[in-house]
């Protein structure tokens, strides 16, 4: 992974503001009688039904429609529909009237009267004109227009290991406010997938006048085998992509399609087991000649909907819903990502590629000579407490833990040495001991049966554990529990909501234990590394679990800590969502020790102490405005306290907080060479240095020129932004850059996450580069075998606390591993 001569290419384009001045689009306003019809249901806050199903219906039929205003009943100045070509108004009004009739019937009101179509029509306008009139539209409309243009013509994917290019045709997908192009599904020996290209428009930090089009590429995997819907995991929204025949386009022989992303979920214990999440059963009745669209029929007979008939539907694979795993793995290769970027560049002549970024040389340590190589301990522990490692499982798991400790190495060195039987000494300067204790597996780690207890099942299980296990006494050691938990297939027949992990974790926490779960060897997922034998793969997993437990108890990577080489305390501010609300945390990394403070228990605790005392933390108010004010107030108060105590901290702030109260780090307010306008921070205070860290999806995707794997920190000198790329995940070490998803569908392709660092305040370039490298090295402090973490250590470890604040699992609408970066 040589870095010599490598340039980081961000997959983003800078727009020429003149590019769309002459481009014409078509606008259609909502009839006033329909606006009044919808307004009768509005209570000043919300409607009793969703408007989005109507827009999804229209966009699944008409690829020309690139924007739908779902707030048309409130926003009179913005058009209802925007299209690249005018669609016959009669058909649009017929489909919309059918939906409104359904609303009227459902709510027992009179349906709106028929309209005089001669008074309703499309009007044309220049893109520049409408964007100037409503600047909010640009973020939706411009990427949608780019995506539409991309789908108009077939594409050729040129791969190095193939003599002939792969021919691809793309369709637009309307989902989650992203402009997306999806290729025709590709059938392989391992399963079915599509390539996906996504477009997103936004500004970067400190550059409010520079509009960038972000481009990312990945895959979407599909379920093609019939499903037993009663065994799907419940309570989670998952995705179906629906496209209806459009006779207007089909008659012209263009074959262009568009898909709407509709969601379903499994609920209840009787048939039908699944339903539409937004009540869509009758949405397509008018275009299906009175027939409803059943999720049960789609899931139990998916192939029926794969033909060229109407509707055309694809079931998107979701790891958290479908119990059967796919043979086809997630992610695409670095070669394919670059090819799609080049494909977009050729298609967008009016958008300029960003200039590739050079590597920032590693800063030299001041006042030190090149040291002779010396024996450095692999890990470091900032406290002298011993660890009790409980193994809750069969003899085979206990023996596997012993074998892992005796033989597995962390970065080339043994983590511990055996002292006597179950006692091991950690290979660190502190020499902490690890004492193994075998504990029999109990029935309280089995799946929950909600048959009689329903929503009380979690609390009942937690209370049973608290009554059954001896509580940890004293504070001279830290108790860590490795618990064998059964795989989903062993408890799924108990029905919906049977996952016991959170209830078990809570119970063990209340008895003074930090927890980590591991599946039995027979239920563990097979290793992706071909060289791994089944037994060595399982030992690898067990060893990783041990590292996670020790990391949660305060053990860090010693070499990475030495490389950080920072004398000032490093403080991170982050928010965590839990069952009772949103919590704020400060984490402080100083002298190799991480401590934690939160609202409600405002003294610095070690990480392991904080984990066991999460019940004492106070969440913020739930009202959004009050919450933002309190987030900012508490942050400012803590900074002032640190300064009063004589500290000169480096403060890491996650960029996501710009939406949640810390407005001073917003993209249009932040200035590279000035302290940000944050509570508790004076503009002329040189004793605090703020660094904004962004690891979210608004950081551009990337590759290297020439195409390769590489690591390091890369600089955009003009903007003051730095981009860090970490080491490859270990699971990817044997994957050559010439390999592709198209020819290796069973291989999981992972790319290290690129993270954006922005040191703020008056300083010279040398100091700015040193701080960027410091933050980058913090990403390697967390002990893990898999990869460099996406976030620097003080931010990363708030995820440990998060595990203990959530009694239930919180699910997102889409849980696809399409764009896999670690």
UniProtKB/TrEMBL annotation:
Domain pPIWI-RE RNaseH, first and last residues per copy: 589-804
Signal peptide (UniProt feature, chain positions): none
Domain (pPIWI-RE module N-terminal): residue spans on this chain: 12-361
All residue ranges annotated as the Prokaryotic pPIWI-RE MID domain in the record: 461-559
Entry-linked InterPro entries: MID_pPIWI_RE (IPR040496), pPIWI_RE_X (IPR025085), RNaseH_pPIWI_RE (IPR024996)
Protein name listed in UniProt: DUF3962 domain-containing protein
């Amino acid at each position: 992974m040589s870095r010599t001569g490598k340039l980081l290419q961000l997959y983003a384009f800078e727009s020429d503001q003149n590019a769309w001045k002459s481009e014409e689009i078509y606008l259609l306003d909502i009839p006033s009688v329909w606006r009044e019809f919808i307004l009768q249901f509005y209570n000043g806050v919300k409607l009793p039904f969703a408007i989005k199903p109507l827009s999804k219906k229209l966009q699944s039929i008409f690829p020309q429609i690139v924007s739908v205003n779902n707030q048309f009943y409130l926003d009179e100045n913005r058009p209802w529909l925007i299209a690249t070509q005018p669609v016959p108004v009669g058909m649009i009004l017929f489909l919309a009237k059918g939906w409104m009739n359904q609303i009227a019937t459902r709510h027992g009101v009179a349906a709106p009267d028929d309209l005089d179509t001669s008074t309703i029509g499309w009007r044309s306008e220049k893109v520049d004109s409408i964007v100037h009139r409503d600047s909010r539209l640009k973020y939706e409309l411009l990427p949608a227009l780019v995506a539409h243009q991309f789908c108009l013509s077939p594409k050729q994917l040129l791969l190095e290991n193939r003599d002939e290019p792969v021919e691809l045709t793309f369709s637009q997908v309307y989902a989650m406010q992203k402009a997306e192009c999806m290729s025709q599904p590709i059938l392989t020996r391992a399963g079915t997938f599509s390539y996906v290209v996504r477009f997103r428009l936004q500004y970067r930090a400190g550059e409010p006048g520079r509009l960038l089009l972000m481009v990312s590429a990945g895959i979407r995997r599909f379920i093609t085998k019939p499903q037993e819907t009663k065994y799907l995991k419940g309570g989670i929204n998952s995705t179906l992509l629906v496209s209806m025949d459009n006779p207007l386009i089909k008659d012209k022989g263009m074959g262009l399609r568009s898909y709407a992303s509709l969601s379903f979920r499994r609920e209840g214990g009787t048939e039908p087991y699944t339903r539409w999440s937004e009540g869509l059963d009758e949405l397509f009745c008018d275009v299906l000649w009175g027939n409803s669209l059943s999720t049960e029929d789609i899931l139990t007979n998916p192939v029926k909907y794969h033909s060229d008939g109407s509707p055309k539907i694809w079931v998107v694979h979701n790891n958290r819903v479908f119990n059967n795993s796919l043979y086809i793995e997630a992610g695409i290769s670095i070669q394919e990502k670059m090819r799609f970027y080049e494909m977009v560049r050729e298609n967008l002549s009016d958008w300029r590629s960003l200039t590739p970024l050079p590597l920032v040389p590693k800063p030299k340590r001041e006042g030190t000579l090149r040291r002779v190589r010396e024996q450095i301990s692999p890990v470091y522990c900032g406290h002298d407490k011993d660890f009790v490692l409980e193994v809750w499982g069969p003899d085979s798991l206990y023996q596997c833990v012993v074998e892992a400790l005796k033989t597995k190495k962390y970065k080339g060195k043994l983590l511990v040495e055996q002292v006597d039987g179950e006692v091991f000494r950690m290979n660190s300067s502190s020499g902490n001991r690890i004492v193994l204790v075998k504990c029999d597996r109990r029935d309280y780690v089995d799946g929950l049966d909600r048959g009689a207890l329903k929503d009380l099942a979690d609390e009942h299980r937690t209370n049973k554990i608290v009554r059954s296990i001896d509580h940890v006494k004293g504070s001279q050691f830290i108790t860590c529990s490795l618990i064998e938990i059964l795989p989903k297939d062993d408890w799924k027949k108990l029905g919906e909501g049977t996952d016991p992990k959170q209830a078990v974790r809570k119970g063990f926490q209340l008895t003074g234990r930090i927890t980590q779960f591991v599946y039995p060897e027979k239920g563990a997922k097979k290793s992706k590394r071909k060289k791994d034998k089944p037994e060595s793969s399982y030992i690898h997993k067990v060893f990783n679990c041990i590292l996670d437990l020790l990391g949660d108890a305060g053990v860090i990577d010693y070499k990475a800590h030495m490389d950080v080489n920072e004398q000032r305390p490093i403080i991170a501010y982050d928010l965590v969502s839990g069952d009772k609300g949103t919590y704020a945390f400060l984490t402080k990394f100083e002298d190799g020790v991480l401590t934690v403070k939160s609202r409600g228990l405002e003294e610095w605790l070690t990480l392991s102490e904080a984990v066991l005392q999460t019940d004492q933390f106070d969440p913020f108010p739930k009202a959004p405005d009050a919450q933002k004010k309190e987030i900012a107030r508490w942050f400012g108060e803590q900074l002032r306290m640190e300064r009063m105590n004589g500290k000169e901290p480096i403060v890491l702030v996650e960029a996501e907080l710009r939406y949640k109260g810390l407005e001073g780090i917003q993209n249009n307010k932040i200035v590279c060479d000035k302290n940000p306008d944050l509570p508790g921070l004076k503009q002329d205070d040189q004793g605090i240095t703020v660094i904004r860290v962004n690891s979210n999806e608004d950081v551009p995707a990337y590759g290297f020129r020439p195409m390769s794997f590489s690591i390091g920190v890369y600089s955009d000198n003009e903007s003051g932004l730095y981009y860090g790329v970490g080491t490859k995940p270990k699971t990817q070490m044997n994957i050559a850059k010439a390999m592709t998803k198209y020819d290796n569908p069973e291989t999981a392709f992972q790319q290290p996450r690129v993270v954006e660092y922005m040191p703020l305040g008056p300083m010279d370039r040398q100091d700015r580069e040193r701080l960027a490298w410091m933050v980058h090295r913090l990403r390697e402090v967390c002990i893990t075998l898999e990869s460099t973490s996406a976030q620097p250590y003080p931010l990363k470890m708030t995820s440990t606390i998060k595990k203990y604040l959530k009694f239930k699992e919180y699910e997102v609408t889409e849980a696809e591993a399409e764009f896999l970066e670690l």
